[in-house]
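Notes to self after the Tuesday call (sharing in case useful).
The group wants a holo model before anyone commits to mutagenesis around the pocket. I volunteered. Ligand is 0O2. Logging inputs and output together so the record is complete.
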Amino acid sequence: MDNWDEFLSPYKQAVEELKVKLRGIRKQFTMNDDRSPIEFVTGRVKPVPSILDKMNKKKIRMDRLHCDMQDIAGLRMMCQFVDDIKKVVNIIRKRNDFRIVEEKDYISHKKPSGYRSYHVVIEYPVQTIQGERKILAEIQIRTLAMNFWATIEHSLNYKYNGDFPTEIQMRLQRAAEAAFRLDEEMSLIREEIQEAQKFFTKKKE
Ligand code: 0O2
Ligand code: 0O2
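Result:
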């Protein structure tokens, strides 16, 4: 690739726009004094070394990069409760500023690593001075507990380059189950938690 800056520029624009749009959903809930199913939203453009690494691993050709790598633009939406994920996905499905091209449910079907998240791949139109460019972006929707596990597993992945010692792999799988049990426990006392959150938000006003 001669010019990564040029290639990545619509992806950068898409991430910035989508961060504003998806954070806007949270704002609308809080403005109406409703509890938001979204806790926070982050986004990033995949760094070039990670793109090259993934191209190498998945045998993706440069001329097919725009269609074969779905997460060059990546957004994450964090939720407090597992049930919130469905609500967020439904909100995303109803929008007409992008088109959903794929959904991957790694919550009902966790990955062998223990990874859980709901992925929605979208085709997002970016307005450029040369006209409209449609790019792919991946939205990962997960609970705070799923995010905690994924963040730590991801940093260990860097250390071991994906090749975990058996002991660590087993402990990570157990930790993933513990994170999921935490989500289940929190769901059971959800009403209680939400009542307290409402009470304290009111008190702050
Ligand atoms: P690393 O090492 O890659 O983790 P803001 O100022 O809040 O509007 P900002 O500062 O760009 O925006 O950051 P934001 O939106 O809070 O989130 C950026 C960080 O979130 C990244 O860190 C990623 O770790 C993480 N992140 C967010 N969304 C995704 C995603 O879809 N995929 C992946 N892999 N990571 C995501 P860095 O700085 O890039 O560092
Ligand atoms: P990054 O930016 O470092 O996070 P695959 O062939 O399954 O590896 P594919 O087909 O691109 O990947 O799609 P998938 O699995 O739906 O989504 C890939 C992204 O999901 C990853 O991006 C991670 O962000 C996240 N993910 C998937 N599996 C795991 C896992 O076991 N652990 C963690 N921590 N995250 C996971 P990348 O490419 O790793 O990039």
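Two things stood out.
Residues 4-31 form the longest helix (28 residues).
The longest strand covers residues 131-143.
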